[in-house]
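stage 2 :: seqdesign
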């Protein structure tokens, strides 16, 4: 397997050094940026497999950088923040982030989260047969090998985490999923995220599909969880 390229964007040189050491130890290639503007310039020159993106930075903050990146790419983004602020967390996920880690953090956990995102994005086909790479529910189609989704032949762009969540529903279209089961399927390495994080991902999936004409795709069962709607 070829080495993965990770971009680390943080205005704190010590944080960059710690993450760089942890990622290189995990056999990943790393490029570093001090702010969002520099990150955009570097990404244009050298596309990467995943971006670790601090939220609070000068020149251009992480949320603004994420919005600009999402205009041109679905590269996975893992946010870093010095504040354990749920508003920042939810906003980051709403605009296209895949995960969120609060400072101070464990470098080992950060690497685990990065590996989990990369596996969801690029590693699914190694354990699936060809038949299981193509999923369909009404007019909604998914190809896990191409990491692609269509609604009535219109392409829909989801982040790696959103893709992983929706694929769970398409593989078991009659199942009712609790938040815990969604979490277990989308996040590996025993990583815990809040119910609000799962709800935010579901809301984002719904919004993206509604924008192309699929008004209902995931139904909420109050006090139980979620299930796939008819979506015809």
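stage 2 :: out
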């Amino acid at each position: 397997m070829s080495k993965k390229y990770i971009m680390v964007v943080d205005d704190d040189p010590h944080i960059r050094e710690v993450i760089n050491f942890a990622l290189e130890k995990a056999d990943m290639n790393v490029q570093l940026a001090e702010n969002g503007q520099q990150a955009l310039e570097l990404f244009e020159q050298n596309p990467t497999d995943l971006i670790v993106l601090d939220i609070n930075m000068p020149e251009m903050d992480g949320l603004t950088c994420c919005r600009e990146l999402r205009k041109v790419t679905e590269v996975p983004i893992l946010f870093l923040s010095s504040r354990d602020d749920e508003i920042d967390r939810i906003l980051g996920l709403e605009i296209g982030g895949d995960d969120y880690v609060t400072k101070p953090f464990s470098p080992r956990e950060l690497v685990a989260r990065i590996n989990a995102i990369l596996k969801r994005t690029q590693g699914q086909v190694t354990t699936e047969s060809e038949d299981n790479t193509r999923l369909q529910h009404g007019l909604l189609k998914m190809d896990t090998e191409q990491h692609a989704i269509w609604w009535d032949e219109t392409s829909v762009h989801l982040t790696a985490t959103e893709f992983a969540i929706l694929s769970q529903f398409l593989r078991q279209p009659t199942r009712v999923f609790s938040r815990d089961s969604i979490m277990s399927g989308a996040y590996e390495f025993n990583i815990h995220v809040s119910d609000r994080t799962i709800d935010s991902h579901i809301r984002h999936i719904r919004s993206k599909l509604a924008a192309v004409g699929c008004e209902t795709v995931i139904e909420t069962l109050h006090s139980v969880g979620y299930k796939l709607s008819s979506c015809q």
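stage 3 :: structure notes
- The chain has two domains: 5-122, 126-228.
- The first strand starts at residue 5 and ends at 9.
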